[in-house]
Amino acid sequence: MNNHRFIKLGVLSVAAGLALVAQTASARMDQHGAAFRAYNAGQNGDIDFLVSGVRNLATSPRAVIAPVVIDTPASTSLSVLVDGSNYSGATTSFTLYAYNYEGTFQSSISGSSSAATYDTYLTLATVGPWSYVSCLATLPANASGTLFGVTTMQ
Length: 154
Description:
By secondary structure, the chain is α+β, with helices and mostly antiparallel strands. Helices cover about 15% and strands about 45% of the residues. A hairpin with a 2-residue loop joins strand 3 (about 45-50) and strand 4 (about 55).
């Protein structure tokens, strides 16, 4: 009988540990740069996908867009990291947008970086449990920047 108690305690301990891991894992969601697509369909051929992210091969800047994967937010705001690199002083700019399930605008925030490597932290002021979030980025011309991805910090 005592062995059964230890087994039950062991099973409960493992279940509690898995629940904690699952809760911790949902605190961060990553979206790889290769998930981005040309914002203007006619510019699809200018966008180059790499194992490290996405870049623009055209001789002028191009916009790309991707969904930002979120878990049900624990608060009414959402913090996001945008990661990438630039070459020769080029600039990458990005805007995060949040809309609710009815298509009503909730909030947006913009940022940019000319750093050789950047991790830009942005916070959307308003999101909800039924929000859809996207990132619209403008990539510099001539493969002068690579967008690695977007990470939500919930």
